[in-house]
Amino acid sequence: MSYTIDLHGKAALVTGAGRGIGQSIALALAEAGADIAVAEIKAELAADTVAQVAALGRSAKAYAVDVSDFTAVHAMLDVVHKDFGHLDIVVNNAGITKDTLLVRMGEEDWDAVLRINLKGAFNCIHGAAKIMMKQRSGRIVNIASIIGLIGNAGQANYAASKAGLIGLTKSAAKELASRGINVNAIAPGFIQTKMTDVLTDELKQAMMNLIPQKTLGLPADVAKAAVFLCSDLSNYITGQVLVVDGGMVM
Ligand code: NAP
User: Fold this and answer.
1) How far away, in angstroms, is 116 Cα from ligand 1 center?
2) How far is CA 37 from the centre of its chain?
3) Cα Rg for the chain, rounded, in angstroms?
């Protein structure tokens, strides 16, 4: 029995991998041996991750794509499949927030968050599952949020998108299990990235008070969980939500 993680020979697509949690996941998968398809809405962000993956000695290629565009995502997946010859891992990480109280929330803010956070993951799973079903193997990891589990004032759109992503994860896991494809979600708590930098120090302190481990999370904390869910160590785990939050939600 081996307890080592070795992703050599695997091709992994990570969306929103230009910075923050997505970049950290891409680099952690590359450190474990995987070659990386970096999907980003902004090409210049993707280039930085590609350079860092290359510095680790792995192959990497950038794909400029808006994950909410069904046709563009499918076209990208075709190219990724051709470039790498196979597709073993997909991490649906791209996500946005547009926070405001429910009664002040405009239709556009609702639609944008659902389109990118939820439909974006559907688009990638829809395209990737076809490739993985033929391979009879694959790993899909969806980056949800504890907000999808507990809700949050000012984040009705975000909470709905992440709760939806958890439902999508479980349904896809049930549909794809017999084809050797594991589908899981990670629900991070408060992680230090550009997404959370915008919050006031007061709010950050209030969050900290709710975290039993008394420290904010780092992108690498989420990346380690993602590598585990993409490895052989999690072969018998599917349809689960792994909470990475320093104990905030239990
Ligand atoms: P981030 O720093 O804002 O990074 C998100 C990345 O996704 C950015 O590079 C962004 O590119 C890209 N992106 C946005 N819209 C896209 C689209 N339509 N198509 C392709 N790429 C797109 O956020 P993060 O904090 O690393 O969060 C990553 C994921 O973790 C998100 O799903 C988020 O909801 C989730 N999460 C984060 C936290 C946290 O505390 N940070 C907690 C729980 C869950 P642009 O810069 O060009 O927009």
Assistant:
1) 10
2) 13
3) 17
